[in-house]
Amino acid sequence: MNNEDKDDKKTNLIIDKIRENTRNNRLTYVKNFLEEPFNLNENEILEKIDKAREKEENQDIKVLKGKKGYYFYSNKRMTKEYALILAGLEDNDNPGLIAHHVRNDCKTYPRPTDNRVFMNFPFFLSEEELTETLEEMTKHPDYEDIKKLYTSNGVMFLYSDKHLSEKRAKRIAEHREVISKQSI
């Protein structure tokens, strides 16, 4: 087997590993390729993935840059949004994760985010971790658009004032948490 065939075989193994991990709801990390049977450094991995993605059958392979490095997934089985959540969890970036999720909810749906979302799958933050993270966020300029509001029954919602006005966020949160539950 010549070197080009070995390279192709290694590249196919890399792509297969990424797809397998994605099927199991996991990202693939650079560290997955540092040892046997790959023995590649980060630059070699990125080059092989870039080259593989030039082929139409591999355009589902996506690359995310996180705080701890590069993450890979297949968008045939995982959305970019979910991959970003997994990358944020791996990076242990609770403020960034919360801000991204809140901004996405406000921009896409538009709606404020019930804070209890972050205590459930896939985030699993404790109430204490969430409180500490939200406090930390108030001191950081990257998160100055993330605001808190409380419904009449005391449930905290988060919203981005870049995408929702306080008035609209309050109205939506009150309807979701209080009014719709009264009509049941």
Describe the structure.
With 184 residues, the chain is α+β, with helices and mostly antiparallel strands. The protein has two domains: 3-79, Arc Repressor Mutant, subunit A (Orthogonal Bundle), CATH 1.10.10; 93-182, Orthogonal Bundle (Arc Repressor Mutant, subunit A), CATH 1.10.10. The protein has helices at 3-23, 42-53, 80-90, 94-108, 127-138, 166-182; strands at 28-29, 61-66, 69-74, 113-114, 146-150, 156-160. The strands form two sheets. Strands 1-3-2 form a three-stranded antiparallel beta sheet. A hairpin with a 5-residue loop joins β5 and β6 (156-160). α1 (3-23) packs across α2 (42-53). The N and C termini lie far apart (69 Å).
Indicate the topology.
Layout lengths: L2 H21 L4 E2 L12 H12 L7 E6 L2 E6 L5 H11 L3 H15 L4 E2 L12 H12 L7 E5 L5 E5 L5 H17 L2
Antiparallel strand pairs: 1-3, 2-3, 4-6, 5-6
Helix pairs in contact: 1-2, 3-4
Shape: elongated
Physical arrangement of strands within the biggest beta sheet: 1-3-2
Oligomer: single chain
Structural class: alpha+beta
CATH class descriptor of the largest domain: Mainly Alpha
